[in-house]
Design brief:
The protein is mainly α and 171 residues long. It folds into three domains: 35 residues; 71 residues, Helicase, Ruva Protein, domain 3; 34 residues. 70% of the residues lie in helices and 0% in strands. It is elongated.
């Protein structure tokens, strides 16, 4: 192989290039997962909105699943708003959340204090990975280190004490 090819292979094998490739994959997956799939029918929009709103009288059920009268009322309001065509899905959900003081949101908002629900786990994960990387780097650098004179003296003292204890047990 030529020197240029060897140098290129060394760069490809380095961890920063892998980090960049991983970041590209994450970005592409994020774009693909959040991409708009085109216009939905009114029924699809009503169902999608109903799945994001919790029933105010039920425990852990969405308006889409619940058959309680409060859920039916919210579902009818969603249908009226969708049929009117003046509001986006997010605006319809915001109106419902405003009337119930945001207790009906199954998915937290991505703004204000609610954004911590989305950001905090990611920040903790990044800090954990960075901490592990720093620890592994430090351990790798310390593997080749030579013991200090203090370390040698400590081991010699412990060996002498252990040897003296063995001699006492034999007698």
């Amino acid at each position: 192989m030529s020197t240029g090819t060897t140098r290129l292979m060394g760069k490809v094998k380095s961890w920063p290039s892998w980090m960049v490739m991983g970041l590209v994959v994450v970005v592409l997956l994020t774009v693909g997962a959040t991409r708009d799939n085109g216009p939905l029918t009114q029924s699809d929009r009503i169902d999608a909105i109903s799945r994001r709103v919790a029933c105010p009288t039920c425990d852990g059920e969405s308006v889409y699943v619940s058959r309680a009268s409060a859920a039916e009322s919210i579902r009818n309001q969603i249908a009226r708003d969708v049929a009117a065509g003046r509001l986006t899905d997010d605006e319809i959900i915001a109106n419902i959340a405003a009337s119930f003081q945001a207790r009906v949101l199954l998915v937290p908002r991505a703004t204000g204090f609610d954004a911590l629900v989305w950001v905090l786990p990611i920040a903790v994960g990044v800090c954990a990975v960075a901490g592990l990387a720093a620890a592994f780097r430090r351990w790798r650098l310390q593997q080749g280190s030579v013991p200090s004179d203090d370390d040698r003296a400590l081991v010699a003292g412990l060996l002498t004490t252990a040897h003296d204890d063995e001699d006492d047990e034999v007698l």
